[in-house]
Each structure stands twice: as structure tokens, then as C-alpha cells.
Amino acid sequence: MFKDITLGQYMPGNTVVHRLDPRAKILLTIVYIAMVFTVSTPVLYVIPAVYVYLTARLSGLSFRQLLKSIKPLRLLLILTFVLNIFFSGGQTVLVQWKFVTITQEGLLLAIHFSLRLIFLVLGTSVLTLTTSPVALSDGIEILLSPLKKVRFPVHELAMMMTIALRFIPTLIEETDKIMKAQKARGADFESGNLLARAKAMTPLLVPLFVSAFRRAGELAMAMEARCYHGGEGRTRLRVLRYTKEDGQAFAVSFGMLFLLIACNILL
Amino acid sequence: MPIRVENLSHTYMPGSPFSSTAIHHLSLTIEDGEFIGILGHTGSGKTTFVQHLNGLLMPTEGSVIVNGVNIKEKGAALRELRKQVGLVFQYPEYQLFEETVAKDIAFGPKNIGCSKEEIDERVRWACEQVGLNYESTGKVSPFELSGGQMRRVAIAGVLAMRPRVLILDEPTAGLDPAGRRAILGMIQRLHRENDMTTIMVSHNMDDISTLATRLIVMNKGTLVMTGTPREVFRQADELKAIGLGVPQGAELTHRLIAEGFDLPDDLYTLDEVCDALAKLRGVSAGV
Fold it and tell me: In angstroms, rounded to a whole number, what is the distance separating the alpha carbons of residues A166 and B92?
């Protein structure tokens, strides 16, 4: 049952994209998002498309892996498309049937917004596919650190994120084990109606909660035993450093953003 | 209820970058009434292997045939199989969930559709087998018990299914010496009195050497040795090469032989070594 769950969607690798500094990757993703939002007509999605294609090629991701990230969005995509096509008004009527009117403007808008969604997800999943969750939360911590000035608990937030991420596989493993143990005692998690199935979860959830609390307590104890006292004055094992590759990535990304803005003005 | 394992291989997460093969082409047969000890280093595939015996894991390749039924066959009655092959997991106390000990032990019998009277009878029997007092402990919450007691409850929960084959994965892990002795004594009694085929996974040589009638040694997912404890522990060097030790008795025998003592090379319990040494000096044993 839990065979196909991997932590986040991270695909380990050692490509240029994998090696980029996580901070740079987060910022580049923001540049990319800005790019997607500046596109003014559907034709210009060519530019983000080229961008995604290049990064995907560079990071060794397959087309299938990227498509997988859009799959959960199917419903939202259809909804966006349908709502825009039917309810955005406009003058140039293409189809008129009873109360349904499809206009050229509506069709364009529907395509525009659907593409926007698709490209937003594609680009951001390149980030999550090539960056380990721990690196990601490290990057977020540093990028958010200016917020410390207004007493925002940046370090605590990042630490919680890291711990939560760290425990996902552990809890999945634990769930799998308890499930097997209860199955060995004849438990049935797969058949019966909704109520029966919900009830069948008790032998799974009670031990899982007990062990999650036990683990949390043990972890807190272990952290205190090693003198953890929050982020104040804490140094890092792996210090993040920007490299030449990061600079090049920024140059290319901003270049494409400006190209896009220029195209927007010219068209 | 013989168990035949033929050319079994198991791969976790096949086809993904995380795929790993835990068992490579394993074949063996377990006969009725045997007490099998499975030895192996961490990650040698012991746990993966025993989870095939009651259909919790399915072979990626090869077959597991329990009592003539191939577990991979469509429509193989898995619940029936799990009734017959009881599996006690590592740290089984973490699977307890009910409000009272008696209710928790009753979980298995209830799942296999026993009548109320039968459930009650089975719970009492299982309590007695693991040395728990049904009257006093039965109504207590399992979370109030000590670690060793919790483990007994968990084992009773599997016993209440009345399995004909009992598999225990590291049943003494994390227990103090007294708790360990108590659990081992209990397992031995269960095996003798109920004529249950018993399979115990362990990496404690001393535990397993006194109990098992046959040992299976695994390394990196393959079977490297099988035989009586005497046959296996004789090959101390091979065992050490794969990161396993030998029981204290066997270790002592080897060192004494190296020092020039004229002892048989297949002794493995301390009592045997004592007897043999006494014989050397011409003194009768046990004095």
C-alpha cells in the first residue's frame, strides 16, 4: 500500500540543477513565477515552456515525471477552463446554443488561465523534484531570516518543517509495520463499507499516535541533551554558498524574463 | 503443515530509483514440529523472509507454499493462512491498542469470526500460556503495564489465533535479562506442549543455540548455511566472516583447542564444555 510513497517528490541526482544553491533555486522559482504572470497572450507561453524544457533537460527529469505533477490538478484545470470559457463574456460569438454562449475572448481567456496554471505547477515541481526537502527548508530559513527583526520565529519554523519532513518516512514505515502486525492478527483494512473501514482504522491509529508522541518526546529529550536552545548563535554543518553556476542561472532567468517583457511590449 | 520456499526473491519498490532487493533466490523447506532459528546480520533479509510465510509480503519471484497452497495464487485464503501462521513482530508491544488487555488479546479471534464463548476461552488460554493472570491483568489497560508484560500481551494476542506455526521476530530485543529468560522459557514451553512449528529470528547466538533444532543463517538476502546448531556453530570462522558471532560455549571450545586442549570441535553450550573438560581431567561431570 505504501510502496509508492516517496518523500515529497525529490528525485536524487547530481546535475547542475540539483547542485544549485537552494536559496538561488527558490529565488529563481520566484523569477519564473513572475515570468508566467507577465505573459500577456497565450502565444508567449513559448518562453516559460522553453525555460521549463531547458531546466528539465539539465536536471535529467523525464517528461513523464513532470506530467505526473500536473495529474492531481486535473479537476482544477477543467474547472478553470470551463468557468472561463462560459462566463467571461466578450463580443465575438463563436457558438450560441440555448443559454450557452462561447466567445472568442472567453476561449482565449480559458486557454490563457489553464496554461498559466499548468506552467506554474510545472516550474515549481522542477524545484521540488530536484531539491531535497531539508535543503529547501534550509533555504527558506535563510531567505526568511530578515523577518527575525519583527520577531517572527524563522528558525523555529524551519526546524519544525525539517522535523516534520524528517518524520514522514518514519511514520509511513511505522504505519506499514503496525498495519502488517494487525493484519497478522486477521485485521482487514481493505473491505467493507466506509463506516466499517473507518472503524478498522482504530487498531492502526491508536498505536500510531502512541508511537508518534513517544518519538516526539524522545526527540525533544535528545535535542535538549545536546543543548539545543533554538536558533540563537547556531552554526551550520553545511554552509550555503553561491557559486558561479548560481550566477549563470540568475543571468539566464532574468534574461528570459526581460525577453518576455520586451515581447509583451512589442506584441 | 510443511512450508516450502522455492527460489524466493523479494524486491522493495521495484522499478523506482529506491528499488532494493532484500532476498535473492532463497529455497528451503520447514517441516512440522521443527524449531527453526533464523540468524543473520541486520539487513540480511530475515524479517522480509518471515513476512512471506503468512502472506504479508508477496514474492517478487519464486513461490512460498504453505500446506500445499501457493500464497501468490489468486484467491488464496490469506485470512486462513494468517490464522495458521502466527507472526509476532519485532517490538510487538507497539501494536497494542485496546482499552483492556483482554480486549486486545481478543482482537485476533474476533477477526477470524470466533463465537463469544470461544473468544473468551481463547483469551484465557492465551493468558495462561504467556503467564499472565487473566483475572487481575485482563481488565487493566495494556498501556499501564511494564515493557516485558506488554510484550507478553502482544504475544498472547497472536497465540489466541491458535496458529500451528508460530514465528517470532527478535522476541527478546530490548528486554532485561530476566525478561529475556522468561520470554525464552515461555517460547520453549509453547513449542513443546502445543507441538507448534516455531520459527525464531534472532541475532543472539546464546538464545538461539539452546532452543532451535535447526538453524538457518542468512547473509545479504541469501541462505548461507543450514543445519543443527552443532553443525552450524562448528563453522565459527564462516560465521564471523559474515559478521556473526558464535555462542560463548563454541567460542570457548575454539580457544581451548587453539591452546592445545583435546576437545571435540563441535561443542557449543557451556555445560557441554564443562563436561568435556571434566572428562579430560577424569572427574565425573557436574561436580
Answer: 24
pLDDT single digits (tens) B11-43:
988 877 778 899 999 999 999 999 999 998 888
- The pLDDT, as a whole number, for residue B140 is 93
Name the residue ranges covered by the structural domains of chain A.
1-131+239-267, 134-234
- What lies within 8 Å, CB to CB, of B174 at 6+ separation is B91, B147
On whether the CB atoms of residues A36 and A123 are closer than 8 A, the answer is yes
Q: Residue B94 is nearest to which of A178, A184, A188, comparing CB atoms? A: A178
Phi-psi region of A157 (alpha: psi -120 to 50; beta: other; left: phi over 0): alpha
Are the beta carbons of A181 and B95 separated by less than 8 Å? yes
3-state secondary structure chain B: CCEEEEEEEEEECCCCCCCEEEEEEEEEEECCCCEEEEEECCCCCHHHHHHHCCCCCCCCEEEEEECCEECCCCCCCHHHHHHHEEEECCCHHHHCCCCCHHHHHHHHHHHCCCCHHHHHHHHHHHHHHHCCCHHHHCCCCHHHCCHHHHHHHHHHHHHCCCCCEEEEECCCCCCCHHHHHHHHHHHHHHHHHHCCEEEEEECCHHHHHHHCCEEEEEECCEEEEEECHHHHHCCHHHHHHCCCCCCHHHHHHHHHHHCCCCCCCCCCCHHHHHHHHHHHCCCCCCC
Q: What is the ipTM of this complex?
A: 0.86
Distance of alpha carbon A205 from alpha carbon A178, whole angstroms: 9
Cα-Cα end-to-end distance for chain A: 52
pTM assigned to the model: 0.76
Interface test with B, best of A130, A175, A185 (most B CBs within 10 A): A185
**Judging by DSSP bridges, how do beta strands B3-12 and A100-103 pair with one another?**
unpaired
Place of cell 537552494: A22
Residue A166, C-beta contacts closer than 8 angstroms, at least 6 positions apart? A134
Element (H, E) at A93: strand A93-97
Centre a 10 Å sphere on the Cβ of residue B136 and count the other Cβ atoms it contains: 9
Contact B161 A185 (CB under 8 A): yes
The DSSP call for residue A13 is -
Residue A204, min C-alpha distance to chain B (Å): 8
| A35-66 confidence digits (pLDDT tens) | 999 998 888 999 999 999 999 999 988 888 88
C-alpha cell at A93: 460569438
Q: Using 50, 70 and 90 to split pLDDT, how confident is the model at B284?
A: low
Q: A159 and chain B: CB distance < 8 Å anywhere?
A: no
